[in-house]
Amino acid sequence: MGFFVSAREKTISAKEKEIDAKVESLLKKMTLKEKVGQMAQIDIATFIKRVDPKGPSWGPQAEPHTLDKDSLQKYIVDYGLSSMFNIGTHGYTVEEWFEFMKIIQDYAVNKTRLGIPILYGIDAIHGAALTIGSTVLPHQLGLASTWNPSLAEKAGEITAYEMRASNCPLNFGPGLDLGKHPLWSRLDETFGEDVLLSSTMAKQEVVGQEGFDNDISDKTKITTNLKHFIAYSFPFSGKDRTQVWIPEYYVREYFMPAFKECIDAGAHTVILNSGEINGIPLHSSKYWITDVLRGELGFKGVIMSDWRDIEKLWYFHHIASSYKEAIKIAIDAGIDLNMVPYDNQFMDLLIQLVNEGKISEARIDGSVRRILKLKYELGLFEHPYRDPKEYPDFGSEKFSRISKQSALESIILLKNSNNILPLSRNSKVLVTGPTANTMQALDGGWTYSWQGVLGDEYAKDKNTILRSIQNKIGKDNVVYIKGAGFNDANEIEKAVKASKEVDVIILCLGEAPYAETPGYIEDLYITDAQVDLAKALVATGKPIILVLSEGRPRLINKFEAGMKGIVLSFLPGNEGGDAFADVIFGDFNPNGKLPVTYPKYPNDLMNYDYKFCDLPDHNWGFNAYQPQFAFGFGLGYSSFEYSNLKIRKDTIHMDDNIEISVDIKNTGKVEGQEVVQLYIRDVFANLTPPMRRLRGFEKVGLKPGEQKTITFKLTVDNIKYVGTDNKWTTEEGDFEVYIEKLKGFFYLKK
Predict the structure, then answer these.
(1) What pLDDT does 55 receive?
(2) Which of 345, 361, 388 is the last residue of a domain?
(3) Domain check: are 36 and 62 in the same one?
(4) Together in a domain, 414 and 354
């Protein structure tokens, strides 16, 4: 079979050769200034001016606004600008994007000497949510809660389709950062704390956005942008864009696999870590960018800087004495495209560096070659913009149904004392809390605006949790009192008084929207006002259902014992209100599982894959891992029984397959889905092994009384670890296998 090439492979190969020839022909015609312009990406704020001369005249605060022709002339025509990104104060409709892009691409294609189109990018991290009227999907952490890779692929397909309809073919996503620190303000942009779950979901998101064959010239596909290479998400401070201190072998085992999976899946661009790794700003590291990303991982696409991060090597990280020196360091390290983001200094200084012989023009050619190739692959030379009328499914009911299913499967039932859930539709309920009647708390950041504060304006036709409950059981059965805001407790007494009139309290708590640095918190506990509201309602003695909508696990141990039921979703999107109501009143059997550990205490933030040495004192029987809710946990309205765990061979050789099977039966009264989770422990290793690691998972649906056998087929590669020599390895020895409460063993023999 290796001697034959499929027709599709021949076509792709011929197309790639044709593109390469076009790139080389164009590159030969370019001046140094035009080449350098292709390495710059500038924020749309630079091109915005206020229509009314009163008030702010520049930038995203200029409303109402239009595009400034002088800026378009300066950057696109005079400097040969490559790329633009971002939005203004708010998102645009597809019609507005179309009008903007016609103007922008007219300058690039018709008014420049070589007619090179602009590459436009936005952060579409949970659907094209910065476009008004789009399908707003659950955030990545919510998608990860589904443990359903097919939904990640469908989410990717919808995102790509609606991004193309918006004429924005570059998506700054998916996020491949591993969500190991619950304080981190971008945890919602991750697929959770586990390597296997994160890698699997991320790969399917890439496949959905780029297509199985990576033909991103398809008008329904886009280029993904893998972020943030590498080890960005585990800062010991919990803050964004800051220091990470972890050994390289840990980086390689935990943070690199998702990038390898997605690069192997054909992703076209990568964006870099904005912080430092072991004292070295990633944007300055030739080792990580060129030797590892390009060399070891074989990435051939465009490597991008994040926001102003080349300049930050000078004024923020202080490893360069000037912006000019910072540029030299970053370009030498291997960066292709710089998110500038506001002016022409980068281009002027880079031209100086080449003219002074400090950077070779051949080095510039390498980056420009990759950028031009990406634009050809996207089909931008043939179609610099497209009419949104070509996209009849934009914001369609078909897409909304997929978003709703994703939201439903993302919901995690964490507590259900005495089977209080589902509630009867005849119940009279008090709905209270700051997340009850706002779309902002369901959608989070990166929705209609950077910080996600416009949800109630642009998603007013969607249902908040309150409206969904009212629609489900009738307004006459629902009493609503806000009770408290995120930081004020002005109506607690009103809520307590209203509780006397109802059977059940539905307490809606969580987080206000945020993104990146504005999402910093100093305290992982849910806010004081919300704690006060919860405690006051517990004191009433009425049964309480806690509904959490948040981007990270905020601590609830001060009042958790008083909750009869707890339902959680990590920012479920525009269909989240209806999804919550369906779960609470039994129209959907919840099956989500935690993709992160839900901590109980602020100073006990251990991940599930802790090590034996993390146990404080074995003689006293202390348990190191004592979260509020464990990774992988989630209840439902069905019950499942596991039995008959089998390992095909007791002794496994290095070239053998590892086959593990288990029977699962639905012993409940309703049809349900369960995530079968396979964990393996390497009992002894040269580098201290975790107590257990997720090595396989499968979501299965079962009718009442139905039983299925689930089989996992692994290779020895699936149970290897990275040693202190930074190489994947394993040794002869004992391994333990865990599925639910079942345990098995095998011996690995060289």
Answers:
(1) 56
(2) 388
(3) yes
(4) no
Tell whether 410 is covered by a domain: yes
DSSP state of 284: G
Q: 560, 584, 608 — which closes off a domain? A: 584
Q: Are residues 573 and 682 in the same domain?
A: no
β-partners of residue 651 are: 747
Residue 606 lies in a domain: no
| CA-wise closest residue to 383 among 221, 269, 225, 266 | 221
680 occurs within a structural domain? yes
Report pLDDT for 90: 87
| 66: DSSP letter | E
Q: Which amino acid is at 446?
A: W
Do 550 and 523 share a structural domain? Answer: yes
Q: Give the tokens for residue 579.
A: 């999804």
**Alpha-carbon distance 263 to 241, whole Å?**
24
Domain at 705, CATH number: 2.60.40.10
So what's the pLDDT on residue 324? 98
How many structural domains comprise the chain?
A: 3
108, 119 Cβ separation under 8 angstroms: no
Domain identity same for 408 and 322:
no
Q: Supply 119's token pair.
A: 């590459």
Report the distance separating Cα 523 and Cα 513, nearest Å: 16
CA distances from 640 to 288, 406, 566, 634, 699 (A): 46, 22, 20, 12, 13
Contacts of residue 524, defined as CB under 8 A and 6 or more positions apart, other chains included, come to 182, 183, 552, 553, 554, 555, 599, 602, 605
Domain CATH code at residue 543: 3.40.50.1700
CB 551 within 8 A of CB 435: no
- Decide: 432 and 501 in contact? Cβ < 8 Å: no
- The pLDDT assigned to 285 comes to 98
Out of 306, 336, 443, 682, the active site residue is 306
Separation between Cα atoms, residue 424 and residue 585, nearest integer Å: 6
The answer to whether 150 and 205 are in contact (CB under 8 A) is: no
The predicted structure's pLDDT at residue 109: 97
C-alpha span between 580 and 160 (Å, rounded)? 27
In this structure, are 293 and 350 located in the same domain? yes
pLDDT score of 618: 54
Give me the CATH number covering residue 298: 3.20.20.300
Q: What is the pTM of this model?
A: 0.95
Considering the domain boundaries, does residue 609 fall inside one? no
For residue 75, which of 328, 346, 382, 363 has the smallest C-alpha distance?
A: 346
H/E run at residue 339: strand 338-339
382 and 406 in a common domain: no
Q: 11 is in which domain, residue-wise?
A: 7-388
Q: d(Cα 509, Cα 511) in Å, to the nearest integer? A: 7
Start-to-end CA span in the chain (Å): 31
Let me know if 682 is a catalytic residue: no
pLDDT value for 6 = 40
Give mean pLDDT in consecutive 10-residue pieces for the chain, a chain of 750 residues. 41 82 97 98 89 54 76 96 91 94 97 98 97 98 98 98 98 97 96 98 98 95 97 91 94 98 97 96 98 97 97 96 98 98 96 98 98 98 97 98 98 98 97 98 96 95 98 98 96 97 98 95 96 98 98 98 98 98 98 98 93 71 81 98 97 95 98 98 95 97 98 97 96 97 96
What pLDDT was estimated at residue 264? Answer: 96
* Helix and strand numbers, DSSP H then E, in the chain: 21, 29
Q: For tokens 């129209």, what's the residue?
A: 587
